[in-house]
Structure formats: C-alpha cells, structure tokens
Predict the 3D structure of the following.
Amino acid sequence: MPETPSVTSEIGAIAESVERRFLNGRRVLAFSEYLDLFAGDPVRFARDASVYLRDCFDHYGSTSKEEPWGTFTRWNLFDLPWDPRQAPHALIGQEQVQEEIYRSISNFVREGRPNRLILLHGPNGSAKSTIVACMMRGLEHYSTLDGGALYRFNWVFPSSKTLRGSLGFNQKEQGSQVGTYAHLPDDQIDAKLLVEVRDHPLFLVPVDERRKLLERMRKDKEVASPSEYFCDWILRGELSHKSQQVFEALLASYNGSYTEVLKHVQVERYFISQRYRVGAVTIGPQMTVDAGERQITMDRSLASLPASLQAITLYEAKGELVDAAGGVLEFSDLLKRPLDAFKYLQLTVETGEVSLGAQNVQLNCVMTGSANELHLDAFREHPEFASFRGRMELIRTPYLRSFVHEQRIYDTHVLPHIRRHVAPHATTMAAQFAVLSRMRKPNTEKYPRALSTALAELTAVEKLDLYATGAAPERLEPEAQKVLRAGVRAVFEESDSYPIYEGRIGASPREISVVMFDAAQATAYACLSPLAVLDEIEQLCTRKGEFEWLQQDAQVGGYHDVKLFRETLFSRLLGMWEQELYASSGLVADAQYDELFEKYVQHVSVWTKKERIRNSHTGDYQEPDEAMMREVERLLDVKGDAHEARKTLISGIAAWAIDHPGQKVEGRIVFPNFLRRLRDAIFGDKRADIAKQARDIVVLVRDGGAGLDTNRRASVREVLAQLASRFAYCDNCSADMASMLVRKRYSDLIVH
Ligand SMILES: [Zn+2]
C-alpha cells in the first residue's frame, strides 16, 4: 500500500514554498537595498499610478479585432487571461471604450500625472463597472509579477533591549555599524508605523537631492531627460504629514544624522488588492466621506515610540482616496450624489491633492467614475458643469450593437445559472431582440448619394444583420450591397455626436437576463426554449410605463416596433429550425446540393466559353450537361432567358475574383444565396417527407411512438441523434421545434 504523506509533512512542504516565495519576492528591504534595486531600473520603480496602469495595459498586450464596422484594438487585460477562473468576469466587446481609456491614460503619462477623472457614461447596464473592475483585476495580477513590483515603506522602532544590544558601550561608533532595523524580527521591534498614503520610498530624499539623484541615474541608464521619463509624483512628491513628522522628530533626536533616520525605514513590497482596498477601491454613491484624518491615540505601541515622537500629535489620513493610492479609484454612479458631495474633486483632480484638516494629502491614483446618461444630462445643465468639464474625460459607453457580442453576455453570464437544458437559439432570440430595440433609423441625408440610396429602406432587422456580420440585404443590387458593406463604419458612427445616440436607449442586458431566467421557469417547456424567451419578451413589452425604449414611436423600416421585432424573430426562428431539421433529416446529404451547385458552375463556365468538358471517368471530352443545367435553373427558379442568367453568373464570378485576389473560387462562397435557394428548392420537393418526419418526432418523443413501426422509429431516432450531435438539441426541444413547425409551416401537409 502506498504511503500517504502525513499532514505534518505536507504543511512542512507548504511552509517551505511560502518561505521561498516570500524571499524571492524580496518583500522587505532596508532603504539602501531599495535604492540599489531602484538604480537598477529607475524608470520602472519611479512610476506613478498612471504610468503603472498604462504599463499594465501594455504588459498584457493587445489584439487587433475585425468587426464589420472597422478594425479595433482589444486590450487583452479585459479578457483576464491570467486566470481561466476569472473568464466569466471578462469584458465583452466595447473595444472603442478600451481604446479611449488607453488614450486618456497615455495622455496622463505624457502630461506627467492623472489630471482628469475618466468618466464612463452610458445607459444603465452598459458594462461601465465591468470595465473598471477588469482594470482593477489587471492591476492586482500585475502587482504580483516581477515587472509590476510595488514598494512602500514603514517606520520601525527597535525595542530598547535591541537598541542596547546593538548600540552597546560605544554608542556612536557601534550604532553606525548597524545598517538598518528593517530586517529585525518582530520580537525585537517595539513599534511599526505604517504610512497609509503609501509614500514612495524616494520621498525620503529631499526634492532637490532627489532630482540630482534621478538625473545621475538617468545618465547611467542613458535615458532621456528626467521630466520626460519621471512623472511629477516622483520629481516633486513629498512625504505625507505623518511621515514628515516622524522624519523630523527622528532627525532631531539623532542630532541631524540622516543615516540614523534611514535605519528606521523598512521598505516593503505591496500588492494591489480590491478585497483589502489597496490601490483598487470603489466608492458607492451613498458614501459621502472619501478622505479624512484621525489623531492617532496613545495606544501601547505608540507609548513605546521614542520620547521625541511621543511629544507630537500624529494624524493619520484615511478613507477611500487614501486607500486607492498607487492604483485606481472608482466613483460608481458619481453623479447620483449631490454636487456638494463631490465638488471637492474638481480641485483635487486639478491639484492632485486633497485637503484634510491638518494636512494636504498628495494623491497618486487614476480616478474613474461611472454615470448614467440621465444624471449626466442633468449635470450638463448645472452652472458648475463648465468648470468641471475640463477636469473630466467623458467616455461614451453605449449598449452593444452586435447581437453576436450581446449573445456572448447571455451565454457567459446567464447560461451557467440555468439548470435546464438550453435549447438552440434561446440566447440568440434574446440577444437579437435586445439589439433590435437599440437600433436607430439612419439619417440618409448624412451620407454620399450611393450610400444614402442603399440606406434608404434599410430596416431595423437588416441593420441588425449588417452590424453583426457585415451582410447587406439580398434585396439590394450587388453594387448597392457593396456600397453598404463599405459604409458600415460610417453608419455605425452616425449618431456618435447626437445626444440620443444609437446604443443609449434600448433593452438593457440586465432586463434581458431576467427575461432568460424567467423563461427558464416556464412550465410549458422542459428546456429553456426560444419560444419561452419570446413569451417573456412579450410580457416585458407590456411594461410600457417603465422603459423609455417602449415609449418610442415606431418608424418606417420597423424601428422601435417591438411587436414587429417579435414576429420577425419568430419567423427567423422557424427558418433556422427548418434548416436544421433539413440538415438532420438524412433526406438529402449536405454535400449533395453543394456538389450539384459546384458542378453547375463548372459546366456553365465551360458552356460560356463554348468549350467541352473532360469526363473524369472516361477521359472523353463532352458537351456541358444541358439537362443538368436546366434542372438547377428550374430549382433556382431562374426567370427569363437562361442563357443570359448563365452569363451573369460567370461575370459575377469574375467580379468576385477581382475583389478576392488569390482566393479559390467556390460556388458556395461566391453565391451563398444561390446555394440556399438550391437547398430550399430541393427540400421544397421533399416538404411532405419533412413534414411527416416532424410529426413523427413529436409522436415519438411525446406519445412514446404510438402508431410508428420499428423501422420508422429507428429512422426518427436517427434524426433526433443528428439534431443532438450537430445542433445540440435534446429530445424535448426537438419535439418543441417539430411541433411548432408542423403547426406553422406544414399544417397543409399533415392529415389529422
Ligand atoms: Zn432541450
């Protein structure tokens, strides 16, 4: 029997690795040790919060993201890539917002300090707090890495016994041999004063000398001028009030010996932590006190301070502004507070300081905030707004307008909490409805003529698809489709400058998530059914008084027409179901119409060139197969002159090849619509068979197959297996789907 290691030995192993990590992390340093470390990479160790945050973005890097409305930079930190368990908290979409935030932070870096508050504004539920939370998580992880190591310092006071031991008989000479008290074990330390403001250890060097020191390090490292590389904070920052008092008291007691004072400095690595409110702090709207101070009471540890220190009154700064030092501070729902509660921010952001009773505290954090549009609208009307405006970076954070992105919200955040089987298309219905409710009718006057014409009759549903996949409506001429595809970005950005921009009004992901949870309780279905989602959406739409998006007048093209949205989604659902049932039916193999279409294109191509085609079996040259071409044309429902249609097809291929140099010409890629029409036509011929299959699925799943013979059962089982493996249906949602298709699409074919 293998021996299991005892718990004691396991603890021993854990202890060792903890100790190793601790020592490797170089958590505690004497001032001189820190200075050596600093000199090794002055630029890195001199970072203020904005440089640090910018470097954190850079550390995780970025990815270029192609969307139908343009190519954007996605900052990887928003994917929380360092820990798969955090994946559910990642940000979905919002690349433009990421780009704007990075631009603002880079500006702070250039300007030497974070001199504006980044205010994310948008409708409720547009991921504003998720964005800041990702940045905070990024900082947390970055601070655990070597490249992200952060340092603060404490004041330590050895016990008198220790002092006697080290200072010994010849106080003056012996004392100076003890380089530092930083590494003394706890039992030899009487008191430790934390510097809650997290002063940079270099603040212990007076400003003038510090500049010279940095200048020298800069020369050693051949970096550019100090002001280009060093932020305001490190160049001009001063010790906080408490540290300054301790510093002066010690200096006095050592008769001006700076070296002796520095022995009391214990530099310590620290880590950003939301949980412990270190460098990552969120202030809710109900809290009004963001910083304050308190007098340190004479507790036991203070009583053991040197006599020179006991005579002075120490004030300790406290509050969220102080806790956020070194990182990011978030004012959640900033404008929900009365103006008086955040008025001080105007000056604070401008000066980088907050004034408390006995002291001014220098702030070193990037301030962010969130606000919903209604509060921002009201704030814009306020007389104080104009002066605030210059101290804020306003970044618009709209709802998502691609249903592909929106669907990922529900797939990521809702589905893990659903205990039922989730039927195919359930989240698609939810996402498409949410995005449809946000669509605005384009203002065609804003565009050049060709685009304006292509946009003239664009419906809300067509806009939905245009944003999601870049696909232009098939009803348009090929040239107009091309113009529209090239114009997606212009259309996407059309309303950016409008007060009511696209993505401001519409169903919020929170409301639609509730819809999904309610739909998952529906008693009519065993699964989370797309039909239940549509039912719940219908319920939601009755609450007109509660939602601005239900109060808008419907416009031509179906904009804001929620009833039409539901009807359209339902008919799209039937269409998708039908396609999946076709594909699973085994009546025609997928490859069959694919092949047929390729063969058709090949023969037409030879036919237009008046050539002959080589039979791959016999090697003989033959005329193109006229009968086959006619059959395909019948299926494609080609009207008018077939010869003309063939020539159009071939010139279409030529045009496609010019637009897609180097790509293989395949019929199904060049003419996806033809292929779908071909498939529909082939299945159109088999509608009666499909209808019977749909009915038998219902009979087998719901009635135990009453009346079906063994062969029939087996073949229906096979269809169900295909639906499961190819499209993730279970028997229940297959039956829901089949039963609805029988009612809505095949009622003419089913004899009851
Ligand atoms: Zn199911």
Q: What stands out?
A: Confidence is low (pLDDT under 50) at residues 167-176. Residues 421, 423, 527, 730, 732-733 surround zinc ion (CB under 6 Å). The chain has 37 helices and 17 strands.
